[in-house]
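Open question from group meeting: does this chain pack into something compact, or does most of it stay loose? Before anyone orders reagents, we agreed to write out a predicted structure and look at it together. Recording both the input and the output here so the notebook holds the full record.
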Amino acid sequence: MSIDRYQSVAPPAVLNLLIANCVAFLATTLLDEQYTYGLFALYPVDTPWFEIWQPVTYMFLHGDFSHLFFNMFALWMFGRGLEYDLGTKRFLIYYFVCGIGAGLVQLFTNGVTVGASGAVFGLLLAFGMLHPNATIMLLIPPIPMKAKWFVVIYGLLELIFGVTGSFDSVAHYAHLGGMFWGWLLLLWWRHQDRKRFGY
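Structure tokens returned:
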């Protein structure tokens, strides 16, 4: 019996990522935040606090509950369908490539970085590429928009904010990095699938 992709709470990869992020947030809240962020947040590569594991671990830390909530809502919103589209294995590879790629871009900028936003922006890009004409309802303002235009506008805004230094507490280049690495990986998979299946 087939189950509609949007009827289950979340497929396995999305569900486990949601749990892992929530557990990490709870642990950070209960433990010494200075120690946790000092060890697992992402620091610029030219600082003495940078560690080799941080481009992975930073994705599971969040600054506050609203930061966690909006990232996890976007992961749930876009990730459910994408996991069914790509399959669980490819979805996980895609998520971590986007998140780690975003972190590598952010390494060469100033500031400490936490959050799953880079990976989430990669998911947003994939949704726009795989479902370009799907309708997304914006919250502010509450108007419908095709996914492809939503992605283009969001990407342009992140670029403008990054270049102008607006909202400097937000890792704009990490967001763009997640989208860029996601775009490269999707193109690579498309090329490989065409070679494999001959279309």
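Observations to bring back to the group:
The mean pLDDT is 88.
The domain at 12-124+172-197 is CATH 1.20.1540.10 (Rhomboid-like fold).
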